[in-house]
Here is the input.
Amino acid sequence: MPNRATLTSQSPEQTLEIAASLARQFPHALVLLHGELGAGKTLFARGFAKGLNIECNVSSPSYTLMNEYKSGNQSLYHIDLYRINCFEEVIDIGLFDILNAGCPCLIEWAERVTELNKLPHLEVCITRSADDPDWQRQIAWELKESQI
Ligand SMILES: Nc1ncnc2c1ncn2[C@@H]1O[C@H](COP(=O)(O)OP(=O)(O)O)[C@@H](O)[C@H]1O
Ligand SMILES: [Mg+2]
Here is the structure.
C-alpha cells in the first residue's frame, strides 16, 4: 500500500470523495491538514466524516476550537488551531485521550503547533492549482511515522 500520493481535485465533490476514500483507508488517523484559507480543509473534513459514515453538519470549529461528530459508537474530532499556538492547549482539549481511544482526529492549521509533527499522523496538504485556482486543488497526502 503506498504511503503517499498527490491527487488532483477538479471540484468540491471530488475533494469530498478523495477525503472519504482516505477515511476508509485510515479510519483511526490523526490527520494534520495544511492549506491556506479557502483551500478546502473544512470541506475535506466533511468528506472524511462521510467516509466514516458520519452524517452530520461538519463546519469550521474556529470559534469552538473542537467539534465532535458522532454516529452510533463512531466519533470524529475536528480541531481548528487558528487561535491556538501551543502544544499544552492541544493537550488540554484532550488530544491524547482522543488518540488513545483510537478515535480519528482532524486538525486544521496544524502547522501552528510544530510538536504535532512528531506524532504519527496522516499529513494532508491542500493547495490551489495555478491553472484553475477557483476549482482545482492538489491534495498531497503522506503517512508520517512517529518521531518520538
Ligand atoms: N476542488 C475543490 N476542493 C475543495 N474546495 C473547493 C474546490 N473548488 C472550490 N472549492 C471551494 O473552496 C472553498 C473551501 O472552503 P473551506 O473548506 O472552508 O476552506 P478552509 O477550511 O481551507 O479555509 C469552498 O467554498 C469550496 O466550495
Ligand atoms: Mg476551515
User: Anything to note?
Assistant: Residues 4-144 form a domain with the Rossmann fold fold (CATH 3.40.50.300). The radius of gyration is 14 Å. The pocket of magnesium ion (ligand 2) is lined by residues 41-42, 60, 108 (CB under 6 Å). The helical segments are 12-25, 41-51, 87-92, 95-100.
